[in-house]
Amino acid sequence: MDISLNFIEKGTGDILILLHGNGESNKYFIHQIDFFSSRYKVIAIDTRGHGESLRGDAPFTLDQFAEDLHNFMLEQKIRKANILGFSDGGNIALLFALKYPDHVSKLILNGANLNPEGVKRFYQLPIILAYKLLVKIADRNPKAIKNAEMLGLMVNEPNIDPDCLKNLSIPTLVIAGTNDMIKQEHTKLIASKIPNAKLVFIKGTHIIAYQKPSEFNKAVNLFLQE
Predict the structure, then answer these.
(1) CA-CA distance, 180 to 117, in Å (whole number)?
(2) What's the pLDDT score for residue 2?
(3) What are the two backbone dihedrals, phi and then psi, of residue 17, each rounded to the nearest 5 degrees?
(4) DSSP states of the chain as a string?
(5) Strands of 104-110's sheet, edge to edge?
(6) Distance CA 72, CA 198 (A)
(7) Count of Cβ atoms closer than 10 Å to residue 159 Cβ
(8) Which pLDDT belongs to residue 54?
């Protein structure tokens, strides 16, 4: 028996699924849940092993998280949804859209990356070093195993071929901070590879949805209303 994902649901109308980043929970989207629930049925999910969702015994990979989302939509009888993913949540959303395009109305990728090289070295190097240390002590420290798995997602994943993005016919918004931990040219690459994708930069860091909610929500809302 596999896990059921924990989620928050608010509002009515077309469905907007929110996917948080690495090591976080659906609470990251506090400003989006309140804003968008006046127009949409907002469903903010805790991914496997995050927030209040159990780890289970399936592989701890982004591909598995995309499968978990598919299973969740089947369970909830959701045929199609708008999906907004932040950071690793954006990577999950992209993997899901590539595999199950018929289940996505519109796609919003916030601070997503196609591979670990898309992350600025300044941010990636400490993650790699911490991951290597945790792997070394994991056999004698159960907490280290969990933390190593979490960091491993950012060290080893995702691995998405940029050229496969040209097959996406889903309306897509690529949105990031001007001083994001994802390289700006990498964000531009994602937008350039997805046909007719819209690209928006908001002054700020990786967590613009949290830091600059009014600007972020306005940009996302404009895209969803188009």
Answers:
(1) 14
(2) 80
(3) -95, 135
(4) ------EEEE--SSEEEEE--TT--GGGGHHHHHHHTTTSEEEEEPPTTSTTS---SS--SHHHHHHHHHHHHHHTT---EEEEEETHHHHHHHHHHHH-GGGEEEEEEES--SSGGGB-HHHHHHHHHHHHHHHHHGGG-HHHHHHHHHHHHHHH-----GGGGGG--S-EEEEEETT-SB-HHHHHHHHHHSTT-EEEEESS-TTHHHHSHHHHHHHHHHHHH-
(5) 7-10, 41-45, 15-19, 81-86, 104-110, 172-177, 198-202
(6) 28
(7) 11
(8) 97
The domain of 62 spans 7-115+160-225
Report residue 169 as tokens. Answer: 């016919």
56: exposed, middle or buried (Cβ count in 10 Å: 0-12, 13-18, 19+): middle
Evaluated on CA atoms 130, 134, 137, 141, the torsion sign reads: positive
- In this structure, what CATH number is given to the domain that contains residue 84? 3.40.50.1820
Q: Which residue numbers in the chain have pLDDT < 50?
A: none
143, 62: one domain: no
pLDDT at 1: 52
Q: Does 2 fall in a domain?
A: no
